[in-house]
Amino acid sequence: MLTLSVSASGARAQEMEPRAYVNTPIGMNFLLLGVVHTDGNVAFDPALPITDAKLRTTSGSLGLAHTLDVAGQSGKLALVLPYTHLRGHALYQGDPVERDVTSFGDPLIRFSANFHGAPALSLKEFAGYRQDLIIGGSVLVAAPLGQYNPGRVVNIGGNRWFVKTELGISKAWDRWTLEIAPGVTFFSDNDDFFGGKKRSQDPFYSVQSHLVYSFPSGVWAALNATWYSGGRTTINGVLNNDLQNNTRVGATLVFPIDRYNSVRIQASTGVATRTGSDLDFYGVAWQYRWGGGL
User: Fold this and answer.
1) In CATH, which of 3.10.180.10, 2.60.40.10, 2.40.128.130, 1.10.1740.10 is domain 12-291?
2) Residue 42's pLDDT is what?
């Protein structure tokens, strides 16, 4: 499933999503209901007189996904709709200001397809499948439909499109799996940024990695890490000194309740932040699956 994010306007380069390219029987459907909380410092464009920003968000998200056959290999189409409460304070030109807003975030849609090692199988055929090496790819798109006020610096929506492309490589050894996923995130311009300014942003380059262990009971756990760099911004043609070069680590635990239901717990934190959002992240989600002969 697609990891439930803080909001689409946040840097999706920070995401850590283990087992994103795992093989799954075709024709299955997934419903995901989750809550995530973030707490931390947020760095703003140097062109704006905003300092010492501390934000907290609590987001409820609805996710839907469907597995399908893509040229003989397994694929997945997923949609996430976030609803976020954002609250925090900062200094604007030295004076304290606050922000408290609740609304929908930018919806996310993701298409992923495996190219090697994950054949499209029915549920019955899948019983004999054992993973070796999987290679796949994905495209994630965020639409600028969430809450946005150009008179505010902090918003839930981003008022711009972004597209993240990613290559996923997953190698299994018995119950251990090592995953590496390099990606690039591209942004459209925000032509109504903070009072009508034009804000552009360079691409983000990222690499996420995961070490996953699957228990005989069906429970699995992962240690996660991601590094991302880039994202330098330009406001009205003026290039800012805000190149990001950051690292995050985290952990994920997923345990099944029965053949239809499972629970996912995830947490992460920043360990090295040059510029950008340095957030602590906590999330829990319930997943229900059906279809495909289940």
Assistant:
1) 2.40.128.130
2) 61
